[in-house]
Design goal:
heterodimer, A: about 300 residues, alpha/beta, five-stranded parallel beta sheet, four-stranded parallel beta sheet, 11 helices, about 35% helix, about 15% strand, globular, B: about 450 residues, eight-stranded parallel beta sheet
């Protein structure tokens, strides 16, 4: 089975079957990461371009590693040091790189919808590596893989996403992916950071964290973006931490086997206390490992990996 | 020279006229509306007879809200091409907005625009900027601009945030009895905003533009109009709450008119679901409930005028990431089709009422003599075929702007021929009949 789509732009438009296929494929490919020689030839001769208009450590490295493990060639373009700084338009940058034979564009962009625009401009595959406040589908998938590995199912799981929902592409991808797979999604954050009419999505919305966290199976803690402070969404870091920070005492209200996740980079001591981030319930580094597996799966499925993954 | 428009359904909402009859044009003016039994009766010189049977003959449309981009942005549109687009859309009088570069904020630029407009296909009028450089700081020389020929002042594209300054502009403009055309937007609520606030923006992750940003400013300006007794005209009304505010103001006897644009009764914010930059406009497309309220407001007369806010942009302004794309869409060449398809066909209003909002209503709001088929008036006449089915093809536009969200839409109604001062400025087919020869 293959993915019947040219691009991976978001989880909103993805079917449960597609999500299942990606997660199963990722689970199989993850074995390779544990081998002494982490290299398979399945994408030999394929060119993958990571095109990043925003800074990133983990997502970019993760994509590049995923490609390299499968023997694809990678090219990295970032805003600094490229013709983008000379004023080249996004469209022209894409057409130029496509003319060099790129098979896949992995795009991170500050503008929501930029990967959709790219997908119309180029015939190559486009994978959204995070667009503005819209979606971050590979993060959503790696979060789901992490949950699935630990819980075995999504059915009936209560997953709380806490923090700056309004500006979070991670939240949107998680909402779509998890709700499609049968989980119950709860959102919690200051009212000023919950976007208008969010309650029309398949979620339950809270502004009281103690209530929201009660009895949940998973807590996914979003990064608070300190640069948002000047827009006056909340009065102080101190108050944010008091009302919406995840600490040990709060975590006791959740299920006893609760998973604590964070997409990184973390602000320790603000949205999450260090003892929770490093504690027994945290699976934050597992998320990072699963990120490589999920990105391998997507590249493999998009680039016509029709063969048997197990034999790879 | 004369021209006879034969057997059309002649609709002139300026005097409630609606009959199948003839219109005679002589020396560039309408000389007679009524049956003419034979061309011999005309009794003088050579002329043409146009067979208008099955067609509708209406006053040339008046668009009180267009962006002609000249001077300064000639890569988007010029006065000449904008006027050609107007002619193709059946508009014979257009009012240019002053957000050019330099702004239309003094006599010299007013005279430049009017001089360029004098040789264009249709009557080109202009509004002057309310403040110098559209900066919202100092009032422009409104008196001198009125003397040079502006028909209104406007803060379009640069909404006046300072209430006290808006009050002074209104008081001052009232002295010259010209309307103040206001773009109502509280910019403190719309920083970086891209589209209507609501579930669609939330899903797309686009910065939300609350309806209240428009409504707050409408309420403010309505109250200031009451204070100053200025002729207020509210541009591009888009929300249900805005319609309510205006309804209240009118019931209170406040001196105001308002407009909406075809896209605000034809599309919702769902049009942005695929990040289509051509659907990005200011104010933004709203929700289905707003579209219904706009239609209701048009039907009950709360909304007087249909204007296009024709906003042409170059390809490079729109072929970019949505948040960086320019606001606005072209409108002159799709307006009539959208009015017929979305207002007349579904029964929101009948054709004469719809035509009134494109003709006599904007003329009244501006206080100009246009939009009528009264005998003696200039022969600015549009002949339309309301049943003509056409598919929108931006490649066929006369406008330099191709930025329409209606590309490929199948719409009813088409302008067949447009006359300005008795001369044909646009025609998609010849209506000349054999009868003409008899007149020679």
């Amino acid at each position: 089975m293959q993915l019947q789509r040219k691009d991976i732009l978001g989880l909103q438009e993805m079917s449960p079957d597609e999500i299942r296929l990606i997660l199963n494929t990722a689970e199989s490919l993850k074995d390779i990461l544990g081998r002494p020689v982490k290299k398979v030839p399945i994408l030999r001769g394929k060119s993958i371009c990571t095109l990043f208009y925003e800074n990133s450590t983990r997502t970019r490295t993760s994509f590049e590693l995923a490609a390299k493990i499968m023997s694809a060639d990678t090219t990295s373009i970032s805003t600094a040091g490229s013709s983008i700084q000379k004023g080249e338009s996004f469209k022209d940058t894409l057409l130029t790189l496509e003319a060099m034979g790129m098979d896949v564009f992995v795009i991170r962009h500050g503008a929501s919808g930029a990967p959709h625009f790219a997908a119309r401009v180029v015939g190559s595959h486009v994978i959204n590596a995070g667009d503005g406040m819209h979606e971050h589908p590979t993060q959503g998938l790696l979060d789901m893989l992490t949950i699935l590995e630990n819980k075995g199912t999504f059915d009936g799981l209560k997953v709380l996403i806490v923090g700056d929902i309004m500006h979070s592409r991670v939240a949107r991808s998680n909402i779509w992916g998890l709700s499609k797979m049968g989980a119950e999604v709860r959102l919690c954050g200051p009212r000023t950071l919950l976007p208008n009419e969010i309650e029309k999505l398949p979620v339950t919305v809270y502004t009281d964290l103690d209530e929201a966290i009660s009895d949940v199976d998973v807590v996914n803690v979003l990064r608070i973006q300190l640069e948002r402070m000047n827009r006056g969404f909340f009065p102080s870091i101190r108050e944010y931490s008091r009302l919406f920070g995840i600490n040990k005492a709060r975590l006791r209200r959740a299920k006893r086997d609760v998973l604590v996740m964070h997409p990184g980079p973390m602000n320790r001591g603000i949205e999450i206390t260090p003892d929770v981030a490093d504690g027994e319930f945290a699976v934050i580094t597992d998320q990072v490992t699963n990120g490589v597996a999920v990105r391998m799966a997507l590249l493999y499925l998009l680039l016509g990996g029709g063969g048997n993954v197990g034999a790879a | 020279m004369w021209a006879l428009l034969r057997n059309g359904r002649v609709i002139d909402p300026s005097r409630g006229f609606d009959e199948i009859t003839d219109v005679l044009i002589e020396d560039g003016c309408i000389s007679r509306v009524g049956h003419i039994s034979s061309v011999q009766d005309i009794g003088r010189g050579q002329g043409d007879v146009y067979d208008c049977s099955g067609l509708v003959v209406v006053p040339g449309f008046v668009d009180m809200h267009v962006h002609l981009r000249e001077p300064g942005y000639e890569q988007k549109e010029t006065i000449m091409t904008g006027a050609q687009a107007a002619a193709a859309g059946g508009f014979t009088t257009i009012v240019a907005m002053p957000n050019t570069k330099p702004a239309v904020d003094n006599r010299a630029v007013v005279e430049y625009v009017l001089k360029r407009g004098a040789s264009a296909a249709v009557h080109v009028l202009t509004a002057g900027a309310a403040t110098k450089g559209n900066e919202g700081v100092e009032m422009a020389e409104i008196g001198d601009m009125v003397d040079a020929g502006v028909v209104a002042v406007s803060d379009d594209a640069f909404p006046l945030q300072n209430a006290d300054l808006m009050r002074r502009v209104m008081e001052y403009a009232a002295m010259f009895n010209i309307p103040v055309l206001t773009h109502c937007e509280d910019k403190t609520m719309t920083a970086d905003a891209v589209m209507n606030e609501g579930i669609v923006a939330t899903m797309l992750g686009l910065r939300p533009w609350p309806r209240q940003a428009e409504e707050i400013m409408i309420w403010r300006n309505v109250l200031l109009a009451e204070l100053t007794n200025c002729r207020l005209h509210i541009q591009h009304v888009t929300t249900a709450g805005a319609v309510e505010a205006i309804r209240w103001a009118k019931s209170r006897g406040i001196n105001l008119t308002c407009e909406t644009c075809p896209h605000y009764f034809s599309l919702t914010d769902e049009a942005l679901a695929n990040y289509d930059t051509n659907a990005k406009c200011n104010p933004p497309l709203r929700t289905a409930a707003d579209v219904e309220a706009i239609k209701q407001g048009l039907a009950d007369g709360t909304i007087d005028v249909i204007a296009t806010d024709h906003a042409p942009h170059a390809q490079e302004d729109k072929e970019v990431e949505l948040q960086d794309a320019a606001f606005g869409m072209v409108g002159l060449e799709t307006a009539l089709s959208l009015v017929i398809t979305n207002l007349v066909k579904p029964g929101v209003m009948d054709l004469p009422k719809a035509i009134s909002k494109l003709t006599i209503e904007p003329a009244r709001a501006l206080g100009i003599s246009a939009g009528t088929l009264t005998e003696g008036a200039p022969a600015d006449i549009t002949i339309i075929d309301p049943e003509f089915v056409n598919v929108v093809r931006s490649s066929e536009f006369r406008s330099m702007g191709r930025n329409t969200p209606f590309e490929g839409a199948k719409l009813f109604g088409k302008v067949v021929t447009t006359f300005v001062g008795g001369e044909i400025v646009h025609s998609i087919k010849s209506l000349k009949s054999e009868e003409a020869k008899a007149g020679v």
